[in-house]
UniProtKB/TrEMBL annotation:
Keywords: Acyltransferase, Transferase. GO terms for molecular function: acyltransferase activity. This is GNAT family N-acetyltransferase. Pfam families: Acetyltransf_10 (PF13673). Its EC number is 2.3.1.-. The keyword Zinc does not apply. Residues 7-160 form the N-acetyltransferase domain. PANTHER family: ACETYLTRANSFERASE, ACETYLTRANSFERASE (GNAT) FAMILY PROTEIN.
Length: 169
């Protein structure tokens, strides 16, 4: 696969649960060390320890899988019509347009679902990515996962053309 290959996107399938969990864990372990302690990373990654619960979370949302060369390299999920719940890219495939492709697609899908804006609770290492995409910080948060406190930032982006196609006719 070339470095310029555009990621493919497809809907999440039940058989993707294990690879999505592996991407989730690898991204936390390798991409968040500057922002979170080892104990915080372990607590965060433990969310994927319960295979069935993690798979059910992905299946209950509009989840997209990003692929390069046909292999899953990242995923993102939209909770309801207007909240980005998860965005994770395998560390070996960052800076290749994977996260951008996933969020572009979620923004379009949210707009088609009638969302006026999208929100996300961005981890400290993801906040800059969302800022570059026009998301604005609205609130600083602390969440507890398995006894560890983790900080994140609630962010919001108004969707420019949020009307569903044909809605104004």
């Amino acid at each position: 696969m070339s470095l310029t290959e555009k990621p493919g996107l497809r809907p999440y399938l039940p058989e993707d649960a294990q690879i999505a969990a592996a991407i989730f864990i690898a991204a936390i372990e390798q991409l968040t060390e500057d922002d979170y302690s080892e104990a915080q990373q372990e607590a965060w990654a433990s969310v994927a320890d319960d295979d069935a619960k993690f798979a059910a979370r992905l299946a209950s949302q509009l989840t997209l899988i990003a692929t390069l060369g046909g292999a899953p390299v990242g995923f993102a999920s939209l909770k309801g019509a207007d909240h980005i719940d998860m965005l994770y890219v395998h560390p070996d495939f960052t800076r290749r347009g994977v996260a951008t492709s996933l969020i572009d697609a979620l923004e379009k899908l949210a707009g088609a679902r009638g969302a006026q804006a999208l929100t996300v609770d961005a981890s400290d290492n993801a906040a800059e990515f969302f800022t570059r995409r026009g998301y604005v910080a609205t609130q600083r948060n602390t969440v507890t996962i398995n006894g560890e406190w983790l900080a994140n930032t609630s962010m919001k982006k108004t969707l420019a053309d949020s009307a569903a196609p044909g809605a104004d006719q």
